Amino acid sequence: MMDIVDALLKHHGEIRFLLQKAGHEKQRFGGLRKNLEVHHRNEELYFLNHILDKEEVGDAAAEAEEEHYVISFMLAALENFPHDHKRWAVKYEILEEFTEHHLKEEEEDIFRWVRKYLPRKDLEELGRDYEMVKKRQMEAL
To answer: Cα separation of 9 and 11, whole Å?
Structure first.
């Protein structure tokens, strides 16, 4: 069974793949946005909300949630910006760099701590719930 950290790492990999493709293949942008929206919503619900009160990682979890807001704002701005405009690529590059920085921070600052200090049973239960809801939401969108 995949625990929550493994599930999030797997989805981070999918997002990184889409980030690389959507900058050059603009028809993939919708898929990237969908993945990020589902990822952020469920990461907050099934992961970050469970650690916000932990002194060691609470601030990092709160920062991750704020970064989700910034990424959503950037996605909305890009979606409404003409894809054939020369500045679209510049805007996309900023989104890509910011998102990569965000993913790396989560993986290095939060995931390591969670694996070390949260009970394995809890991590597996959260992972199961995350994967189930993610699958339903991806199919529905």
So the answer is: 5
Structure tokens at 19: 């980030």
Which structure tokens are listed for 125?
């239960």
- Is the entire prediction scored with pTM above 0.90? yes
Residue with structure tokens 């493994």? 6
Neighbours of 48 (CB within 10 A): 22
Backbone phi, then psi, for 68, in 5-degree steps? -60, -40
Successive 10-residue mean pLDDT values, the chain, 141 residues:
95 97 87 96 96 96 98 95 92 97 97 94 97 95 81
In Å, how far are 22, 51, 127 from 123, measured between CA atoms?
32, 12, 6
C-alpha to C-alpha distances, 16 to 19, 22, 103, 124, nearest whole angstrom: 5, 10, 9, 24
Report the number of secondary-structure helices (H) and strands (E) in the chain. Answer: 6, 0
Using an 8 Å Cβ cutoff, are 20 and 104 in contact? no
What residue ranges define each of the domains in the chain, with the CATH number in brackets?
4-140 (1.20.120.520)
